TrEMBL record:
<keyword id="KW-0234">DNA repair</keyword>
<dbReference type="InterPro" id="IPR012337">
    <property type="entry name" value="RNaseH-like_sf"/>
</dbReference>
<keyword id="KW-0233">DNA recombination</keyword>
<dbReference type="GO" id="GO:0006281">
    <property type="term" value="P:DNA repair"/>
</dbReference>
<comment type="subunit">
    <text>Homodimer which binds Holliday junction (HJ) DNA. The HJ becomes 2-fold symmetrical on binding to RuvC with unstacked arms; it has a different conformation from HJ DNA in complex with RuvA. In the full resolvosome a probable DNA-RuvA(4)-RuvB(12)-RuvC(2) complex forms which resolves the HJ.</text>
</comment>
<dbReference type="GO" id="GO:0008821">
    <property type="term" value="F:crossover junction DNA endonuclease activity"/>
</dbReference>
<keyword id="KW-0540">Nuclease</keyword>
<dbReference type="InterPro" id="IPR020563">
    <property type="entry name" value="X-over_junc_endoDNase_Mg_BS"/>
</dbReference>
<keyword id="KW-0963">Cytoplasm</keyword>
<dbReference type="GO" id="GO:0048476">
    <property type="term" value="C:Holliday junction resolvase complex"/>
</dbReference>
<dbReference type="InterPro" id="IPR036397">
    <property type="entry name" value="RNaseH_sf"/>
</dbReference>
<feature type="binding site">
    <location>
        <position position="141"/>
    </location>
    <ligand>
        <name>Mg(2+) 1</name>
    </ligand>
</feature>
<dbReference type="GO" id="GO:0005737">
    <property type="term" value="C:cytoplasm"/>
</dbReference>
<dbReference type="GO" id="GO:0006310">
    <property type="term" value="P:DNA recombination"/>
</dbReference>
<dbReference type="InterPro" id="IPR002176">
    <property type="entry name" value="X-over_junc_endoDNase_RuvC"/>
</dbReference>
<feature type="active site">
    <location>
        <position position="7"/>
    </location>
</feature>
<feature type="binding site">
    <location>
        <position position="7"/>
    </location>
    <ligand>
        <name>Mg(2+) 1</name>
    </ligand>
</feature>
Length: 184
């Protein structure tokens, strides 16, 4: 499975593409950080991110995109910019029919390090080890984008099983409701 991991942000947006193999084997194919100037207008910054992401989608042809789910109550303007960048990425994927999955930072940290409260240094060290990289990916946004892709590769089978179970449960609820309605 080819996964594009995205650590969204207006100033720095981490992009990565990995390919999963058998078991937990993952190979990094590309990683980069899109930077936009803080003094540029919001629409132009989003356009810059969009153009880079669309180029990556057209170049790498990922099957799925894993994006960090944004949530924070500390800095509303940062959260808004990050959410807007994530929206641009989700839109570009939707235009191409590519599935998008959002993962929380704690999900990503737990998948990569085994600790949902791990620090950036620990995540970077584990990403380096998991992918067998010669050097640590920098800046942290690059490591985070790789961690998101790794997280999705490892969680995808469970996500698929959960979707199947939810679909089956919905069918069973419908059948039960129909039986109850017929009996009354």
């Amino acid at each position: 499975m080819r996964v594009m991991g995205v650590d969204p942000g207006l100033t720095r947006c981490g992009l990565s593409v990995v390919e999963s193999g058998r078991g937990r084997q993952i190979v990094a194919l590309d990683v980069d950080v899109v930077r936009t100037p803080a003094d540029e207008s919001l629409p132009n910054r989003l356009l810059m991110i969009s153009e880079h992401v669309e180029h990556w989608l057209d170049t790498h042809h990922p099957e799925v995109i894993a994006v960090e789910r944004v949530f924070s109550q500390q800095n509303v303007s940062t959260v808004m910019g990050t959410a807007q960048a994530g929206g641009v990425i989700a839109l570009a994927a939707a235009k191409r029919g590519i599935a998008v999955h959002f993962h929380t930072p704690s999900e990503v940290k737990a998948a990569v390090t085994g600790n949902g409260g791990a620090g950036k240094a620990q995540v970077t060290a584990m990403v380096t080890r998991i992918l067998g990289l010669q050097a640590k990916p920098t800046p942290a946004d690059a490591a985070d984008a790789l961690a998101l892709a790794i997280c999705h590769c490892w969680r995808a089978p469970m996500i698929a099983r959960m979707a199947q179970a939810e679909a089956l449960a919905a069918q069973q609820r419908k059948r039960f409701a129909a039986k109850v309605k017929a009996a009354t």
